[in-house]
Amino acid sequence: MPGAAMVRGALGAGPLLAGGILLGWPGSGVPAALGAMLAGVNDRPGTRRKGLVHMGVPAVAGSLGLYGGALVAEATARWTAVPVLFAVGWISGVLSARGPVRSAAALQALVATTIGLGMPLTGPAWAHALSFLAGAGWLVLLRLLPRLSAVRVRWRRSPGARGAAGGSAPARWSGEREAVAAVFDALADALAALGGAGAPAARRGLVAAQQQAEEALRLTRLLPGPAGSGDAARRALAARFGAGVALCEASIALLWAGRPVPDAVAEGPRRLAAAVRSGGPAGPLPSAAPNTVERLALDRAVLEAAVVFDRTTAGRPHDGKRAARHREEPAPAGPRSGLLTSAGREYGLRVALCVAVTAAVALSLHERHWYWLPATAAFLVKPDMGPLFSRVVNRFAGTAAGVLVFVVLSGVSGGSGPVPVVGAAVAAGALIPLSTRHFAFQTAVITVLVLAFAHTAGDTEAAGPRLLETFLACVIVLLVGHLPGVTDPRVRVGHRFAVTLRCTERYLRHVLEVPDDGGDRSRDDVRGLALRAAAYRALAEARAAAETAAAELPGPFGGRRQDWSAVTVAAERAVDAATACALRVGNGVPRPAPAEAARVTSALSVLADALEDGHRTARPAPGPGPRDCRSLRDVMTQAHGIHRLTAVGAVGACAGRR
User: Fold this and answer.
1) Which sign does the torsion angle of CA 90, 95, 100, 101 carry?
2) Residue 147 has what pLDDT?
3) pTM exceeding the 0.85 threshold for the entire prediction
4) Which side of the chain, N or C, has fewer Cβ within a 10 Å radius?
5) C-alpha span between 378 and 380 (Å, rounded)
6) Residue 170, helix vs strand vs coil
7) pLDDT value for 414
């Protein structure tokens, strides 16, 4: 149970709405409560710095959208809303391909623009925007309170972890410590799953935990505290995470090889997790017999972790400064997709058309309060939020449940006075963090809140029309979202896998290039870690896109369903093989000849082009000979497998177009 987040939700929209009513400023109370509600949707588990970014950036975008929409509504004719929403919807869809923070910010900007264009609120546009930002800022301020954050972290731990965490580690780093400790817990799960059916899922969990910790530590550098405050603790935590990264690399190589380790070795990272939480030493760490290259790498990583944890124990000399020095240098980012890729264009066109069409229909039906249809479409059609058909079904079911709850509450209370409205807003605000686990539940909770806002703004008969308009928006989104040329999962998923292959190619090229003896090897290692992280981040995004495409309803215009499961497995094996190759090269296995390495990397690049462009025929060059690194041969084998799957039309953007 996200207890602290639920407390913040209860203190957010409801009290702000009540304050606006009591002060006689409902025109300011409604936007403030709306900002708090949308900030509560983004109030997810993580560090306080993560909460500041993931809640604050969308809040700023939403306030700008509300301001712009209100200005347009004041200065132009009402039908101007259609081209405005088309343009904002296109930008929102394009930004959906650029990561979760940009996607959330784009969604809030689109929804707030729609509300600014259509919701009748008294007062100037700048006052609405400031009220929205103040409401969101109030929830962000609650998130930054250290006591609430400490409570949230403590509730999430197991009893054993709580006992281990009772040391002298500074409370202000509790969220970051928990993120790093989760890496070692996931590492123990991955080592325990070696050689079993759960190994791929354990590897995905390990990579996800590592990415969460990387983001948490990156934000400590971007958003530092007071000068000199906790610098030693931050460096020590970064050093311990660096030791965990080396262990993760060795474990991924073991997962790729499919060779299990003794149970005692698999449980060793649990001690490291407890030491991270307490800030104390790790104690003796078991290690596997170094009888293979992968086990030798694991043995060395365990030894390095023991040394790093000893140096970074609270009160010891050096306190992690020397161990964490190379982690403080900026790491280059991996390749990222641009705004105008094929997937970005597809995202943008789908969102823009759905929002513009629903706005045109709503304006034809209503003089006022027409914003509900395009706002509903904005929540439904965002491509990175799951399969369209299931979201439509859950949206209508959740809206019906929310309308029913609000009507029952209004009937029980007699429908008079602001007390039941504020009470419903407080209860719904408290449920928002819990409701994010299911879209229908979240829709029901948000519906209750929005009806409370509409009631406060003077629309006391909003429940019935909202249900009918939601049904109409669902039908429009289903029809427009399945038009030919508007949506093509092969383009969207093919682009994601193309980015994965390009990231893998860059990482592998970095691994196989001959080192420069005069260069800075520590900086080179940081670059390799960044490229590997980019490859796994792209792989996770590709897998999520493939799972979403597999769950989509094949409509009358959708064509045949594509099977992405095989190419997902092949891409995962390719990225894991690149990691294993990096580990083997780092432990003395000779590199292949430059020409042979170039054939492997160029093959991955050609395959990425084929998936991205949709009209090329990928022809990988022959793979390395049997005398080369085993992991390279595996990369080449999987690359040929991806090419064959693409060429026969089973998956990829070029399926059916040859």
Assistant:
1) negative
2) 54
3) no
4) N
5) 5
6) coil
7) 62
CA pair distance 209, 217, nearest whole angstrom: 12
What's the pLDDT score for residue 136? 92
Cα separation of 33 and 304, whole Å?
51
Q: How many residues does the chain have?
A: 658
Which residues, other chains included, contact 647 with Cβ-Cβ below 8 Å and sequence gap of 6+?
A: 617, 618, 654, 658
Cα–Cα distance measured from residue 590 to residue 297, given in angstroms and rounded to the nearest whole number: 15
246 — pLDDT class (breaks 50, 70, 90): confident
Residue found under tokens 């079911």: 397
Kindly state the tokens that stand for 560: 């045949």
- Cα 566 vs. chain centroid, distance in angstroms? 24
Single-letter amino acid, residue 86: F
Distance CA 176, CA 242 (A): 14
Contact (CB, 8 A) for 235 and 328: yes
Token reading at 77? 């004719």
The alpha carbon of 289 is separated from its chain's Cα centroid by a whole number of angstroms, namely 38
Is pLDDT larger for residue 619 or for residue 498? Answer: 498
Question: What's the pLDDT band for 492 if we cut at 50, 70, 90?
Answer: confident
Q: Please state, in angstroms and rounded to a whole number, the distance separating the CA atoms of residues 462 and 446.
A: 14
d(C-alpha 76, C-alpha 288), whole Å: 72
| Alpha helix ranges (H) inside 513-588 | 521-551, 565-586
Residue 100's Cβ-count burial label (10 Å; 0-12, 13-18, 19+) is middle
Q: Tell me the backbone φ, ψ of residue 156, rounded to 5 degrees.
A: -80, -15
- Say whether 88 sits in a helix, a strand or coil: helix
* Closest alpha carbon to 577 in 249, 212, 210, 246: 249
Q: What whole-number distance in Å separates Cα of residue 354 and Cα of residue 359? A: 9
Q: Is 588 helix (H, G, I), strand (E, B) or coil?
A: coil
Instruction: Read off the pLDDT of residues 266-285 as tens digits, 9 standing for 90 and up.
Output: 888 998 998 888 888 888 88
- Which of 142 and 27 is assigned the larger pLDDT? 142
Quick one: DSSP state of residue 628? S
What is the Cα–Cα distance from 157 to 165, expressed in whole angstroms? 9
In order, the DSSP letters of 16-84 are HHHHHHHTT-HHHHHHHHHHHHHHHHT--SS-HHHHHHHHHHHHHHHHHHHHHHHHHHHHS-GGGHHHH
CA atoms of 20 and 13, how far apart (whole Å): 11
CA distance linking residue 377 with residue 468, whole number of Å: 14
What contacts 92, CB < 8 A, 6 or more positions away?
Answer: 106, 107, 109, 110, 348, 351, 378, 382
The encoded tokens of residue 58 equal 């969308």
